[in-house]
Every structure is written in C-alpha cells, then in structure tokens.
C-alpha cells in the first residue's frame, strides 16, 4: 500500500508544469498519507520489490529541496534523520542516500553568491530584548546599570555556525561532520515538522544510538565481540556534536509532548555514558533535571482527569426526603405543613430508642416487682387472713357532724366462684 502511494506521488510531480509547482507545494504540506508512507519505506527500503525505487525517491526529494519552494524544502528536510541512519548503517548498500545528503549539505554551506554561508545568533540575556522580555521596560530597581553594562559587554560577541567547507564525497573522515551539519539544519526548522514526523524522528535516533548494543536493565554492553549475538548489526559510530544535535531534537519533542521522547533521551544518555562524552552527559542530565523539577513542563502528553468509580461510595450520597415525596394525609394535621425528613433524624430516633431500652435493662431489680406467686386452688387449708363470709361495716364521723357508713355484704378472698355482692352506701 505504501509503495502504491509513493508511485502515484512520483508520477504526479513528473507531470507538473512550472505554473502548477506553487499550488502543488502548498498541497504537499498537508499530504500526510504520502509522508507516513515515505517514513515506512525509509525504515527498510529492502522490503520494496520495485527496482530502483529508492533512487527515484531520493532524486525527487532533492528536486523538492532545490525547487525554491519553502514548503517543498521543509518536506525533504523532515526525512534527514531517517536518511542519516540509512547512510551510517548501510554506507555501500544505498549510495543514492549518501549522494542526497551530500547535495543538501553543499547547497546549505554556500549562499546564492557561492560564498560561505554563516549563520549568526546570540544567547538571550536580560540586557538585550528577546521574545521573553523587553529590556527597556525593566524598572531601575530591578537591576543596576553597571550590571546591565557588564552583560552587554559579555554578549557583544555572536555565536556563528560556519563557514563550512564543501565536500566532494563522503568518507570516514568527514561523514560525522556532514551529518552533524545536516542535523543542525533539521533543528533549525524543527518547528515546521508535524507531530508524527517527530515521533518517527525519535524512533530513528533510538535505533541509531542503540544499534549494536544489548540492553540489560540500566546497563549497556557492546556485543561486537560476542558470538551469541551474530544476528545483531554492527554498532554505529557517533560523535559528541552529533549526539548534542540529537539532544536538541529530544528537548523539542519533550516540550511538545511527543510519544517516545523520554525513551529516546534515556538511550542517548546511555550512549553518552558508554562513549564517556562529558558535554553530552551535562546536557542530557540538565534536560532530565529540568523536566523532573519544573512543575510547568509535562514530559508526557496531558491526560483527561477521570474519577474512578471506586471513589464513589454510599457515604458520598446523603439522600433527603422532601415534603413532595411524602404522601399527604388529609385527616391528620391538615393545617400544619409537613417538614422534611432526613436520614440523620431517623438515625437519632433509633439511637434514642435503643439507648432507652438498654438503660432499663441495667436497672436494679426490686423485691416488690417480682412475679406474683401462683395460687393453688386445691389447698386443704384456707389461706390466712381470709375474709370468709363475714360482713364488714365501716363508720366515719364524729361530734355533731353527719356520719357516713359503708355496709357491704359478705366478701370473698378471690377463690370462690360466686358473684360478688353489691356494695351499699348509706348516710347516717
């Protein structure tokens, strides 16, 4: 599928006229299908069954670069890491890749007048304005005038890239210098590269610095002399300036939250430890400390905050029964409004009921509150102090006042089955 898209892309450009080049260049900026197909193809060109397919691709990429259209130039520049890996890993197998890299290098080291091209830039400071601040708006109390003058004297010298000599052919002596210069140009326009292109760039850098090593935990061992790793390819030579350019790419990817950039930083750091490059270790550890300590920078892409279902329990809900939820009873309290009932009130009532019943259990038992003794009806002897069938007469009175007498019939002790006689009350 990737080969078919690339073939259509090649044939379309060959059929263009000069007036259609600008429109075609604008369209290529968003031609993501062809971009991804080229990344897949450059990972392993040997998988393609089309003859001289890589040569045709390299020729068209060089035509894009020297066409004069900036969009076509950026289109070719995004594949520099993949082309560098192919050239370092297969110097003799893919000669067209080396020719493409050498041609791009020679175009960049000279200007339009065929003079040595020099790129100048300065380090940002407080004394000179930058995209972060305006030195003219600084308050006098913020920094002294003498300090500003000292900073201006220190920053009077600009940092220059170049001049670089032109190269006729790539060899072991100049290959590292050429690929380092190409990576510098890649970093200069890295903001123009889309996200998936940066992801492939990080993967390519990891492959380049890790090839020929067997990773065991946090250590890294060379396998060139180990016969058990014959299937692993040879280790690639990388210089200290080239690793610094790789760290520049990684830093930009970390800022943009590109997937795999953290793993690539670890691989470059391990290669710097193996090669004992102090400047590489200084920069790599500085990047690690920056993203570890700075709260405003996120290494991983931001993830949406999701509340776990396990965090929600029954205690998270306090249901409240409103008057509308309670059926209205017309007969009971028609005038008064029904109040709201909450679970807390119900729990308080239950607590009071339980506490009252538990308090009664702990009261001391009184002798008079015991159970009544059972009365045996078949007792042979009458109970003591029984009233029998005698009549009782009670008189109340004294002096000249009227007296009241209560006269009753015979009383029973409760054991008889007879109906009790009525009681007569008379006044004397």
Describe the structure.
A hairpin with a 7-residue loop joins strand 7 (393-396) and strand 8 (404-408). The chain has helices at 2-14, 21-28, 32-43, 53-65, 70-77, 80-89, 95-108, 145-154, 175-188, 195-210, 240-255, 261-275, 278-293, 343-361, and strands spanning 119-121, 159-161, 213-216, 219-222, 320-321, 341-342, 393-396, 404-408, 423-427. The protein has three domains: 1-140 and 168-188, no CATH class; 194-304, no CATH class; 393-427, no CATH class. The model is unreliable at 223-230 and 295-302 (pLDDT under 50). The protein starts with a helix and ends with a strand. By secondary structure, the protein is mainly alpha-helical. 19% of the residues are buried. The chain is globular, with a radius of gyration of 50 Å. It comes from Pyrocoelia pectoralis.
Quickly list its features.
428 residues, mainly alpha, 3 domains, 3-stranded antiparallel sheet, two-stranded antiparallel ribbon, 9 strands, 43% helix, globular, membrane, cell membrane, Hyccin
């Amino acid at each position: 599928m990737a080969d078919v898209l690339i073939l259509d892309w090649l044939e379309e450009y060959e059929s263009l006229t000069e007036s259609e080049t600008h429109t075609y260049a604008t369209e290529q900026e968003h031609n993501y299908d062809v971009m991804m197909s080229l990344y897949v193809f450059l990972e392993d060109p040997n998988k393609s069954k089309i003859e001289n397919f890589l040569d045709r691709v390299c020729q068209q990429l060089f035509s894009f670069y020297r066409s004069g259209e900036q969009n076509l130039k950026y289109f070719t520049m995004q594949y520099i890491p993949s082309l560098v890996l192919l050239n370092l890993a297969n110097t003799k197998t893919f000669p067209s890749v080396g020719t493409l890299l050498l041609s791009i290098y020679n175009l960049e080291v000279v200007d339009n007048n065929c003079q040595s091209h020099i790129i100048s830039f300065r380090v940002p400071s407080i004394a000179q304005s930058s995209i972060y601040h305006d030195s003219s708006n600084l308050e006098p109390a913020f920094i002294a005038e003498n300090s500003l003058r000292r900073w201006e004297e220190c920053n009077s010298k600009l940092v220059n890239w170049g001049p670089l000599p032109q190269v006729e052919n790539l060899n072991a002596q100049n290959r590292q210098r050429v690929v380092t210069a190409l990576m510098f140009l890649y970093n200069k326009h890295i903001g123009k590269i889309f996200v998936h292109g940066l992801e492939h760039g990080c993967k390519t850098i990891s492959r380049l610095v890790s090839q020929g090593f067997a990773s065991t935990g946090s250590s890294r061992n060379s396998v060139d002399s180990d016969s058990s790793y014959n299937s692993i390819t040879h280790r690639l030579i990388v210089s200290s300036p080239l690793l610094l350019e790789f760290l520049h790419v990684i830093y930009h990817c970390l800022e943009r939250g590109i997937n795999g950039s953290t793993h690539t930083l670890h691989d470059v750091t391990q290669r710097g430890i193996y090669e004992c490059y102090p400047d590489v270790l200084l920069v790599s550890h500085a990047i690690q400390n920056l993203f570890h300590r700075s709260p405003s920078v996120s290494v991983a892409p931001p993830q949406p905050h999701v509340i776990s279902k396990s965090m929600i329990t029954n205690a998270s809900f306090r249901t409240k029964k409103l008057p509308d939820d309670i059926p209205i009873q017309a007969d009971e309290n028609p005038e008064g409004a029904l109040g709201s009932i909450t679970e807390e009130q119900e729990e308080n009532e239950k607590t009071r009921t339980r506490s009252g019943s538990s308090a009664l259990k702990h009261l001391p038992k009184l002798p008079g509150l015991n159970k009544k003794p059972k009365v045996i009806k078949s007792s042979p002897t009458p109970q003591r102090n029984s009233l029998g069938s005698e009549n009782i007469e009670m008189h109340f009175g004294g002096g000249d006042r009227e007296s009241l007498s209560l006269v009753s019939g015979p009383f029973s002790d409760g054991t008889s089955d007879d109906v009790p006689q009525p009681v007569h009350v008379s006044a004397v």
